[in-house]
Write a structure and sequence with these properties.
Length: 424
């Protein structure tokens, strides 16, 4: 890795990016490509801000949770100010919450980030955390009520996992005939190289699924009946299980009502078994309609340590898929024919996924955590604060000046990290 002087310059640059992407109480992932507030991006951003401005970190989470719907769902995008540079916007989604929004959620990492921020300064964190706590419980309950299949947490749209075009969805999306969607014009391919973005055939299906939800007013009971795309997914499962544990910890710490959490944790611990694909040697996506496995080793499979579930053979599989990888964790198995090192979730390395995976390794006492932090730090030091990176060459890809990459640098990668869990 570059020396400590460079690291200080990178700290300054990371902070500059977080400040530049601050829209006043909430952040955007990057201007142009993603001009709104995204759910899990915002949770990482909160931790990043908290490294230099604790109050701003809490504010980010407060604005995120203020977009919660009556049923408890916290949407994956909140459209605070309409911006024509992004499609599909609020009219296509027709979200029914207090803020114009999408109609699906995203991996619930916010309670986990809230715990990390709280641990930076428990005294300062007590008041904001007490206020946020009921909204986290309600969101987690929404998943438990609407998104379980044999105890495994499901998604209803590829964007819900935050792994938009992962090969994990290919087989199940192919069964959808995207009839009835209106003609549309993509905006993402105007911002970045189309060879790094999802294909049109995927996009048609993304929009068809949005239309289903929109047309029934995002009624979850109705969607359970009509939506053919319900995937039990390690991303949703492991992030929710981890978030339940962190929320229970916060609740106990603050003397709040944690009554529901032990049972939810137990349900997901049991449900994790139904995501274990023994033939693959990894936790895998399961199509709940057909029962078919995706047969895809993704980076989400390696969140099992983060969720504190039995990793079974995951470490051997990690060593296998990581053998050719030089920077972070590949989002898809490099030996698979579907692997594409620059196309979004079909291979690239994502700094924030690396951080979550490494948290689990560290807590399990595995040396892979420190190695992953070093390789992610090198990736950013040498290639900048890109949205994601080629895992073989480290080449930056997608959007630039990216909020979560800056946040992950400040909170986890920087050798100067002086506070919190990773203090050295
Ligand atoms: C893409 C990513 C998703 C992220 C969003 C904003 O859709 O796949 O994980 O939340 O961009 O950065």
């Amino acid at each position: 890795m570059k020396d400590i002087l460079d690291a200080s310059a990178l700290d300054v640059e990371a902070r500059r990016i977080l400040e530049m992407n601050d829209r006043g109480g909430y952040s955007v992932p990057t201007a142009g490509l993603y001009p709104y507030q995204w759910n899990w991006d915002s949770a990482f951003a909160a931790l990043g801000y908290a490294m230099f401005d604790l109050a701003r970190g809490w504010k980010e989470l407060e604005v995120l949770m203020a977009g919660q719907w009556d049923d408890g769902m916290v949407p994956h995008i909140q459209f605070h100010k309409v911006d024509p540079s992004y499609f599909p916007g609020p009219d296509i989604w027709g979200g029914v919450g207090p803020v114009p929004s999408s109609g699906i959620s995203q991996p619930p990492i916010a309670a986990t980030m809230a715990r990390l921020i709280y641990e930076l300064d428990p005294e300062a964190g007590a008041t904001p955390m007490r206020a946020l706590y009921p909204s986290f419980v309600a969101w987690h309950r929404w998943f438990m009520d609407w998104r379980l299949d044999s105890g495994a947490v499901c998604l209803t749209h590829p964007w819900e996992a935050g792994r938009d075009n992962a090969p994990d969805w290919d087989g199940s999306l192919a069964r959808i005939d995207p009839v009835g969607i209106d003609p549309y014009e993509r905006r993402d391919t105007g911002h970045v190289d189309p060879s790094m973005r999802p294909r049109k055939s995927d996009y048609d299906r993304y929009l068809w699924l949005v239309k289903q939800g929109h047309d029934c007013g995002w009624d979850q009971a109705r969607l359970l009946e009509i939506n053919p795309f319900r995937m039990a997914d390690p991303t949703m499962h492991f992030t929710l299980l981890r978030a339940h544990r962190d929320l229970a910890w916060l609740g106990r710490e603050l003397g709040l009502d944690t009554a529901s959490l032990p049972d939810w944790i137990a349900q997901l611990e049991a449900g994790a078994e139904t995501l274990w694909n023994a033939a693959l040697g990894a936790y895998d996506v399961r199509d709940t309609a057909s029962g078919a496995w995706a047969q895809a080793v993704s980076n989400a499979a390696f969140l099992c340590w983060y969720a504190c579930v039995d990793p079974k053979d995951s470490l051997a599989t990690y060593a296998r898929v990581q053998a050719p990888v030089r920077f972070g964790v590949a989002s898809h198995d490099p030996e698979s024919p579907a692997f594409e090192p620059k196309r979004y979730w079909r291979g690239p390395s994502w700094a924030m996924m690396n951080m979550l995976i490494a948290m689990g390794f560290d807590e399990a006492g595995l040396p892979e955590g420190a190695a992953l932090r070093d390789s992610t730090a090198r990736l950013i030091a040498e290639n900048g604060f890109a949205e994601y990176f080629d895992p073989l060459t480290g080449a930056p890809a997608g959007g630039r000046d990216f909020t979560w990459t800056a946040a992950v640098w400040l909170a986890w990668c920087s050798p100067n990290v002086g506070r919190g869990r990773w203090a050295r």
